[in-house]
Amino acid sequence: MVRRKFSREFKIKAVKLVTERGVAVAQACRDLDLAESVLRRWMREATVAPATAFPGNGQQHADLAEIAALKKEVAKLKAERDILKRGRQWMRHRFEQPLATPTSRGK
Fold this sequence. Notes:
The protein has helices at 8-19, 25-32, 36-48, 62-96. The protein is mainly alpha-helical. The chain has two domains: 1-59, Arc Repressor Mutant, subunit A, CATH 1.10.10; 60-97.
């Protein structure tokens, strides 16, 4: 069986369904096709630290966000470097070939 992944928004909506609308946990789990233990864990996580709850799918920690930004920058810089390398190789190849001189006719 494949492990399902849920977005942060889905988890928040599932928790609000129980806490704000007053739907029973068992009923919400049947409606959302979840195990009760999963929904109860989400409710506990949302109660303990609502701002930082469910960081995996929707909200990254500061370290991970910085690492992702740096990886993106490294990829961009590598692409720029490769473009310059190719241009330098092309220029070297272009100017290393001797220029064609017109042949003299009629001598």
